[in-house]
Amino acid sequence: MEKTCTLLVHFDKGTPALANEIKEALEGNDVPAKVDAMKKAIMLLLNGETIPQLFITIVRYVLPSPDHTIQKLLLLYLEIIEKTDSRGKVLPEMILICQNLRNNLQHPNEYIRGVTLRFLCRLNETEIFEPLIPSVLQNLEHRHPFVRRNAILAVMSIYKLPQGEQLLGDAPETIEKVLLTEQDPSAKRNAFLMLFTCCQDKAIGYLFDHIDRISDWGEQLQMVVLELIRKVCRTNRGEKGKYIKIIISLLVAPSTAVIYECAGTLVSLSSAPTAIRAAANTYCQLLLSQSDNNVKLIVLDRLNELKSSHREIMVEMIMDVLRSLSSPNLDIRRKTIDIALELITTRNVDEVVLLLKKEVVKTQSAELEKNGEYRQMLVQAIHFCAIKFPEVASTVVIVLMDFLGDTNVASAMDVVFFVREIAETNPKLRVSIITRLLDTFYQIRAARVCSCALWIIGEYCLSLSEVETGIATIKQCLGDLPFYTATEEGESRDTSKGSQPVSSITVSSRRPVILADGTYATQSAAVESVMSPAALVQGSLASQGNLRSLLLSGDFFLGAVIASTLTKLILRLEEVQSSKIEVNKATSQVLLILVSMLHLGQSSFLPHPIDNDSYDRIVLCIRILCNTGDETRKIWLQSCRQSFVKMLADKQFRETEERKAKAQVSHAQPDDLIDFYHLKSRKGMSQLELEDEVQDDLKRATGEFTKENDDANKLNRILQLTGFSDPVYAEAYVTVHHYDIVLDVSVINRTKETLQNLCLELATMGDLKLVERPQNYTLAPESSKQIRANIKVSSTETGVIFGNIVYETSNVLERNVVVLNDIHIDIMDYISPATCADVAFRTMWAEFEWENKVAVNTVIQGEKEFLNHIIKSTNMKCLTPLSALEGECGFLAANLYAKSVFGEDALVNVSVEKQADGRLSGYIRIRSKTQGIALSLGDKITLKQKGGA
User: Does pTM surpass 0.70?
Assistant: First the structure.
């Protein structure tokens, strides 16, 4: 049977030692050989071997040894051997070691005394302790602190035994005297810990007698004081005011561990604004003073918790929190920005945006790893601020436009989306945005950024000068026409059909590029390698305009966007230009560009011809320019913008709804109670105590103190493990925390006889791990016992806990076994709805390697009803906006997203179609980085999708 173990040593099973060899080495006089033999014996015992014949040998040859290492190993050996028989009585041979232990406790060497006292802390046998108590008490006054601190722990261990109060009845008084005279910090800590554990009143008395000197105590003792305060305040909330003063005084302690614990204790005990403010200040100081990234992340988690419960106080601390952006770690920066964005108000938005703007500029100058990702985070943060508070947009939009040509495409995309949204929502900034965009357009190297920038130019160039500059800019970036010559086409046909058919192209674009400051560029920026294959960027091709190089790389979707933009600009030019000659001249030039693009796409000059969609789009543009009607003009110049406005409005509506859902507990309603705490009876209370009293009254009135004991909810989590006819009845209450599961198992003996050595044996399947094995119990007839088991969880996966109850009866020698029902751990306890951008969703969808495809099989006939049922069953959030799901077309596609407590992402795509018979068909695809979450979610959906459950 398994036993409890207080010691763990690595053991190499490849070369097991023989008991005879160990015995011979122990009987010899060679000290190193004895040490080695003792180590082998200990490792064999730890790994389940029984060597009963060694005990007498060790008593005869090892006990008398004067060597300190051998004596230490002897104590480890004695710690792990079996000291009692099957009935729980101490073995007679154990009396042999008592004299040796007493000699050790009186040994002239302080190391031998100390390790022996430490060994006594791990004993549970009262018979061994009895003759040693006088020697243990003598060591409380030993000259060396190592001996004294272990003697105090030994006294505490003896006193905590079932008969401890009979063995050492005056232990608390003795330790109290020791504590008053003790100078060693560790010994003082152990003495205070003993009083705290065994006689709490004396510990509290000592604390208040020396309240003025607490700040001078050592770190270890201060930590025990905080533990005492937490325990006392949990049991007696009425007295916490005076303890909070102690915590406040410890906030200036030199130890960072102490002030971190102080801040956590303050938050857990008090809701007073002064206390919360002090805790938040402490966390912010730790954030700056600590260099360890893990510590910073933990502190940021604490600040995040404070933000959820005490937002109004955290708003004041926003600039202190943002100072942690100085850390180069990307996770710290991301968490900091996430916290700060939820604390922005009209009062602090200017300061926050100024700091973010400075950080963006820093990313341009410093060449650090992951600078692009950090810049992207900053751009998204500024975007959020500018949309929420439009008045700050003017200060940042021009600065951010310098990053449209960023080599990090994702960052540049965020900038251009931000510019597009600001151009629509802030009409006053449109002129400056368009001017700046036209000046910097030649720097953009990514096709997707170019597409969005061209859309902005086509929609917001309204005046004559803007339209003409827009057309000129696009023409300049396209370069001279044609895009290729007949000679080059012939050469490309003659070359072999290898991978580089365009390597000998010469491009005739020699027009100098004008920079934003009016000077001529000697050489334009290098073409973005992501967008242009190496075969095309050679020779003079590298120095051409951005649109031309992208077109020559075969990007005809961009070509269609160029055609649309130029068409819009010509249609607008017809409205603002009075001269028909100028309009016709511009129209003919644009037509020439469009026709040249079609020629390029249909030639053998490029390895891939133009796609049909882009071809049709460009041809449509040519037809419109040749024959424009009023209805067509309205569609091109107004309807497109109206669709964008509707999209923005829909996005804003969704964000508003989400904010309303989050703010279930409003911070201050018009009819809220105002508590004039100045009118309360002070009774000699400090300001902090008064604030805390007010907050407690408020919690009591709103029922917050009683919410924790929700008995109805508790009953739902009780699982029956055995049948009513079994001799032992068991049921479990399952509590799921983030990283562990606690099973509270109630075991009832339904027989008329005593059950001995009753043990709950558990095993797990999946990423679950039993932390410790529950001990054996003796159960009287018709009595019950509560057994607690802890199980660690390491990933989001459906796990199973199974096991049995084993027991013995007095009249039967065989062990009886009652098999328990399996406990299934639901994946829904570990995943929660979350949001992410569409771009991030698509990126993860492409990257994640595990996919589970579940066929739709349901009795539900409505597409939206089925989607809502899946969302409810899987505890996920629908990322597809409601506006996209409107209407009845017989088809529905939606993306769902959730995040686990372990940081894993779960992606789901639902695609369903209504058949002619009214039934739904289609697939639900689940993707994740790990196999467990994909399979578990698939099983859950298969189980729930029918609609019955």
Answer: no
